[in-house]
Amino acid sequence: MSGKEEIESLEKLLSKLDVKDLESVNKILYGIGCSKLEIPKIEAEDLEIQSYKFACPREQTRLPKITRVGLFQNKTPLETWAPIQEQRQALHNLAEKAIEAAAKASVNIFCFQEAWTMPFAFCTREKVPWCEYAENAEKGPTTRFLQNLALKNNMVIISPILERDEDHNDVLWNTAVVIDNHGDYFGKHRKNHIPRVGDFNESTYYMEGNTGHPVFETEFGKIAINICYGRHHPLNWLMFGINGAEIVFNPSATTGELSEPLWGIEARNAAIANSYFTCAINRVGTEIFQNEFSSGNSKPAHKDFGHFYGASYVAAPNGSRTPGLSRINNGLLVCEMDLNLCRQTKDFWGLQMTQRLDLYAKSLTAAADLYFKPQLIKKF
Amino acid sequence: MSGKEEIESLEKLLSKLDVKDLESVNKILYGIGCSKLEIPKIEAEDLEIQSYKFACPREQTRLPKITRVGLFQNKTPLETWAPIQEQRQALHNLAEKAIEAAAKASVNIFCFQEAWTMPFAFCTREKVPWCEYAENAEKGPTTRFLQNLALKNNMVIISPILERDEDHNDVLWNTAVVIDNHGDYFGKHRKNHIPRVGDFNESTYYMEGNTGHPVFETEFGKIAINICYGRHHPLNWLMFGINGAEIVFNPSATTGELSEPLWGIEARNAAIANSYFTCAINRVGTEIFQNEFSSGNSKPAHKDFGHFYGASYVAAPNGSRTPGLSRINNGLLVCEMDLNLCRQTKDFWGLQMTQRLDLYAKSLTAAADLYFKPQLIKKF
Questions:
Q1: H or E element, residue B303
Q2: Any CB–CB contact under 8 A between A285 and chain B?
Q3: Which chain A residues have a beta carbon less than 8 Å from that of B376?
């Protein structure tokens, strides 16, 4: 345990400012055009629900394309050493309640945090028992479980899991499964960038994804998934934009004071740079493991790697964002958006028109060459 | 005039929180490792000076590479319709005082705001008299003027001007000139991405830059310049990083409530994504023009295009940042950094190692092709 008391949220602290000051602060920090969304009163135990919407002008030739997303951040309900079947069942139970709550809030697209069906155990570098959490993306128990809920609630569900690929020698992947609102398996995307940072020793378990940058054309919008560490890579975000994404989900698991100041920056910058919505979802709580492990940082071995600070949020193409969910509690963020805002923002800022892709295609091709020499200006 | 009273700064508002809350807020909003830098007391009329430094661990095999940058944001001192020679002279006088103040604070690299030798008159779309402000990058009056100050103060100076290229048919460019600490012209960089947004009708005056992404290896570090609107383009930032930049300056001129929420995000995201320091400099004040102009937004013609909100700041590779300068006053931001933090951050986060440049070289080459089809997954 970190031993210190975690603050509940940045927004709670800011709310101590007087109304006029808070208004000015919010305008600079959160942008304009995000407001509270009215939803029915929903009773859901241990689940804080917040709901927002982004403003978007009407157009003459296109109808609004209104979509509601649901971002679910949660603690693992059992001890990390609980048997796998029990752990998974407890998480499925938790998920069902969150999805039912989201359905009551008319959510169209629901997304979990990264590797949601298990503790985030990659810090341990143990293969046993964690590899046993891996499931077949198309036919595994979690996909089958969610197919029923997707069909029942007419909801697209994004389910980031540890994937076992039996068709290719049983290798593992960090994968997001997309299930459509008819309960059908729609496809999957494998995490493109794998961290080798401190406790995030994920390269022990799986390699860089081989699924490119797919955009899934659902009935509720064109969506993509940039899994966790991929949010540090602007090129990863860029390719989802180039492939036409209107909403990019960023299911994550991140901790610590080195990471937290980045959390509000990266997914939001991606929304701005690519004129799409981004949905950043972080795990919440502290997970304690049975066996101690070291963190590659000269400190003694220990049994947890710090507090997942939650704070999930949605950013709009124009750079506005919602407040974050709690840093300490399970939460569901419901956000309504008009996807027309993507193209409106492209027309306004012109970032795609002025992008000079041809220039950078050449520059990156040169830079990727083994014998590349940087454009360095020296005096002598 | 905007008619409303401008707030002085975000930080001033936040400082109304109690000490403990402010500490928590700052940690999330500004990261860790930035602290006040002690400098001698400097008397400088109408110039608010703030000074900070970033922490950086010592290494065993490399000495620290300590550099101090100075970011200067200023209002135009005369009315915009003052004769060109007078306007330029008044700006030179202001600049000299700022550079002398920076020298007293031991600044090594000094950078002005975008097009600092003139009002930001491109909103007018008038060619007369504004084109007359353009100067030869290598031998113009501003470069000659700054060469003396650079030599005298042993200071590298970055001077963003409107450039007249007499060797190529008198065309104009938006250009940053680099003068080294011996007073020698070192080189120039031309703005790569040109806005076509509302009042920022700059494509009326100059085209996209043809100087690539040069990094200037000065005695005080490897520096590059991403001019204004280029900060919206992650690929532009990326190529400066690939070419080895340790500090990238972003001299800008930006106004308005659509832009301000983005201001703290973009240069800072670039620092994180590319493991270098970024220095974001914005103009300050409201500039009023003699002839009215329209803004492409269905509103009546008017004589100003809003308040340049200053708020210049420095961001570090680890995502920490300084507070911003004032939103309303002339200011000099002095910031000390150890450039070793760049490579340390690369080693820590591994973003370059995990970047998959070869993948994106191929993806962008495909995307730039006229017959490109996006990777879109459809059900039927």
A1: strand B302-309
A2: no
A3: 214-215, 217, 222, 243-244
Of A18, A261, A268, the CB nearest to B319: A261
Interchain CB contact of B2 with A (< 8 Å)? no
Determine whether B166 is exposed, middle or buried from the number of CB atoms within 10 Å of its CB (0-12, 13-18, 19+). Answer: exposed
Provide the H-helix boundaries in chain B. Answer: 10-14, 19-30, 84-104, 141-153, 234-242, 260-274, 340-349, 357-368
Q: What is the pLDDT of residue B233?
A: 98
Let me know if A191 is a catalytic residue: yes
| Strand extents, DSSP E, A37-170 | 48-54, 66-73, 109-111, 156-165
In B76-89, which positions are buried (b, 16+ CB within 10 angstroms) versus exposed (e)?
A: bbeebeeeeeebbb
Put simply, the answer to whether B7 touches A17 (Cβ < 8 Å) is no
The active-site residue, picked from A53, A188, A191, A222, is: A191
Extract the tokens encoding B296.
């492409």
User: Residues A100-114: pLDDT tens digits?
Assistant: 999 999 999 999 999
What interface predicted TM-score (ipTM) does this complex get?
0.97
Amino acid at B219: E
Q: Which residue matches tokens 């939460």?
A: A331
User: Which of A:329-358 have CB within 8 Å of B?
Assistant: 348-351, 353-358
Tell me, yes or no, if B208 comes closer than 8 A to chain A by beta carbon: yes
Looking up tokens 């293969």 gives A127
For A168-184, give one letter per residue: b (16+ CB within 10 A) or e.
eeeebbbbbbbbbbebe
Catalytic residue among A56, A111, A228, A279: A228
**Taking CB atoms and an 8 Å cutoff, what residues of chain A touch B368?**
357-358, 361
Which tokens is B174 given?
A: 């938006």
How far apart CA A51 and CA A332 sit, in angstroms, is: 8
Q: How many CB atoms lie within 10 A of CB A255?
A: 23
Cβ–Cβ < 8 Å for B267, B280:
yes
Q: Say if CB A243 and CB A224 are below 8 A apart.
A: yes
How many Cβ atoms are within 10 Å of A85's Cβ, its own excluded?
Answer: 10
One-letter amino acid identity for A373?
Answer: K
Confidence band, pLDDT 50/70/90 cuts, at residue A4? low
A24, A319, A356: residue with CB nearest B13: A24
Is B92 within 8 Å of B112 (Cβ atoms)?
no
Residue A2: what pLDDT? Answer: 45
For residues A98-112, b (16+ Cβ closer than 10 Å) or e, as one string?
bbebbbbbbbbbbbb
What domains are defined for chain B?
10-368 (3.60.110.10)
- Is B316 in the A-facing interface, judged by CB distances under 8 Å? no
The answer to whether residue A39 scores a pLDDT higher than 50 is yes
DSSP A298: S
What is the mean pLDDT of the segment spanning A289-302? 94
Active site residue A208: no
User: Could you tell me which residues come within 8 angstroms of residue A347 by beta carbon, excluding any fewer than 6 positions away?
Assistant: none
Distance CA B162, CA B130 (A): 9
Average confidence (pLDDT) over A66-77: 98
* CB spacing of A194 vs B354 below 8 angstroms: yes
Q: What is the pLDDT of residues A324-364, one digit of tens each?
A: 999 999 999 999 999 999 999 999 999 999 999 999 999 99
DSSP helix/strand/coil, A209: coil
**Which stretches of chain B score pLDDT less than 70?**
1-4
Is A114 a residue of the active site? yes
CB contact, 8 Å: A44 with chain B?
Answer: no
* CA-based nearest residue in chain B for residue A23: B13
A122 CB-side CA count, 13 A:
25
Cβ atoms of B322 and B7 closer than 8 Å: no
